[in-house]
Amino acid sequence: MSGLILPKEGELAVDSHPFAELDAVQWREGVSFIEQIPAVFEGTLRENVHIGNLEASSEDVDAVLARLQLNDSAEREIATVQQLSGGELKKISLGRALLRDANLIVFDEPFEHLDDCGRQVVGEMLADPTKTRICIQHRSSSSFTAENLIKV
Known about the structure:
By secondary structure, this protein is α/β, with parallel strands linked by helices. It has one domain: P-loop containing nucleotide triphosphate hydrolases (Rossmann fold, 3-Layer(aba) Sandwich).
């Protein structure tokens, strides 16, 4: 979907346009991937969320941190992934995606490790009809209403 690996057969197309004709960098800027264990960089939790969109204002970052109930720990220094819980890692990934405001959002196990606040934010993101959402999950017990469901 990102176009980093092109198919050996067939064609990758976006809105019926061959991917090869698109500006790949611009396309990738419109994609967010909410992963279970995001890359974490030495710095504060705020800085790690801000990486999602370096052009975002401090007010935008504060709003995302508040929405995810991370504002109390925003200035906490982080050096390694091991310093964070699974829920905190997932919220960093969610915060980056919220700041990026991409048209295509790919969720990897969207509800794993999240508290009620995080689950609510994911639910709102999944319900947004203005975005294309792709959800990858192993358990159907945490499923949600989807337009199309593909079981593999």
